[in-house]
Specification:
Blueprint (H helix, E strand, L loop, with lengths): L13 H24 L14 H17 L5 E2 L4 H8 L6 H15 L4 E2 L7
Parallel strand pairs: 1-2
Length: 121
């Protein structure tokens, strides 16, 4: 009886060895075919730096795009008093989850997060 977790090793049959020999022959045939189909006059790839000035310009363009973009400020949907009250609510209440989300945003984006102004309500 075989041991659980161990694979049983089967002896190779003549059909299995014939299939493996056919596969090797097929691979060799394909390799030879690829070699004979390649043109004799292959030009090497040109890795010259003729476009170096364009690359420098592209770097400036990309850096300017990122420099111009300013990160927008984030305004929380609650003020600080509502967040503090919400953190003391039961875990099953949605106010608690909204307060937890506000705290996470404050920690994730320091300096960009602002409380909801009192006149916005």
């Amino acid at each position: 009886m075989p041991v659980p977790g161990k694979e049983i090793e089967h002896p190779l049959t003549p059909e299995m060895t014939a299939q493996s020999n056919e596969a090797v022959g097929y691979v060799e045939k394909i390799e030879k075919q690829v070699e004979t189909q390649q043109p004799a006059n292959i030009q090497p790839q040109q890795n010259t730096f003729e476009h170096k000035s364009e690359e420098k310009d592209m770097g400036k363009i990309v850096s300017e795009q990122f420099a111009v973009q300013t990160k927008p400020n984030i305004v929380l949907p609650m003020n600080s008093q509502e967040i503090n009250n919400g953190l003391h609510k039961n875990i099953f209440e949605s106010v608690r989850w909204l307060s937890e989300w506000c705290v996470m945003m404050i920690k994730k984006y320091p300096g960009r997060v602002f409380y909801l102004p009192p006149e916005a309500k």
